[in-house]
Amino acid sequence: IVAINTRLNGREVDYILKHSGSSVLIVDRGLLATIKPVASELPTFKGVLVIDDPAAGPDDGWRPAGSQDYEGWLAEQSTAEPPYPVQDELETIAIDYTSGTTGSPKGVMYTHRGASVNAIASTGQVTVRPASKSVTGTSAIIDFLLTVKQNSSSVRFSSECGEATTQVVVQ
Predict the structure, then answer these.
(1) Which one of 3, 56, 89, 164 has the lowest number of neighbouring Cβ atoms within 10 Å?
(2) How far, in whole angstroms, is CA 99 from its chain's centroid?
(3) What is the pTM of this model?
(4) Which is it for strands 107-111 and 24-28: parallel, antiparallel or unpaired?
(5) Tens digit of each residue's pLDDT (9 = 90 or more) over 16-28
(6) Pair 63, 50: CB distance under 8 Å
(7) How many CB atoms lie under 10 A from the CB of residue 148?
(8) DSSP secondary-structure letter at 118?
(9) Alpha-helical runs (H) found in the chain
(10) What are 96-155's pLDDT values in tens digits?
C-alpha cells in the first residue's frame, strides 16, 4: 500500500509510483486530472482501478489506458480468503512518502510486524469495542486497521487534517 498525498503534482506522483515499484493504481476519478499530464510517463501497471465518485464533479471521460471501474472489478473478485498468506513478518505492508519539500519525496517502509506492534500499542490510546462504529484520530490508518478488524465487525476510521478527511470502513 502506497498512499499518495492528493496535493502533490503529477511529476511527484509519477516519481512515487516509479520509486515504490507500485504495480496497481487505485485512483478516485476526481484525481485523474493530476496524472493526466504525465500519463505517458507513468510506469506500466498490472491494473488501474478508477473509483467513480459522483462527488468528484464533471467527468471529462479520460481514463488511463487499460483502466477498469473499481466497483465492476470488485464485483468480479472472489470472496474467499487470499491464497497467499504473509510468509515473512518483515515483508513491507506499506510505504509512506514525505511531501518532498526539500527534494524528491522520501519513502518510509512499514513491515507487517511493525504495523501489528503499532496497532497493539494504539489500543492503549484509542478504545475500540465490538459496539464501536466510529473512531476519530490522527494515528496512521495502517497502524490501526489490524486491531480494528480483530475487535469489531464494522468500524469507520476517520482522520481529519485541515480541510481533508480520510475515512476507511472495515467490514
Answers:
(1) 164
(2) 16
(3) 0.66
(4) unpaired
(5) 999 999 999 999 9
(6) yes
(7) 22
(8) H
(9) 10-20, 32-35, 70-75, 112-122, 141-151
(10) 888 777 888 888 888 888 888 887 777 666 665 666 655 544 444 444 444 444 434 444
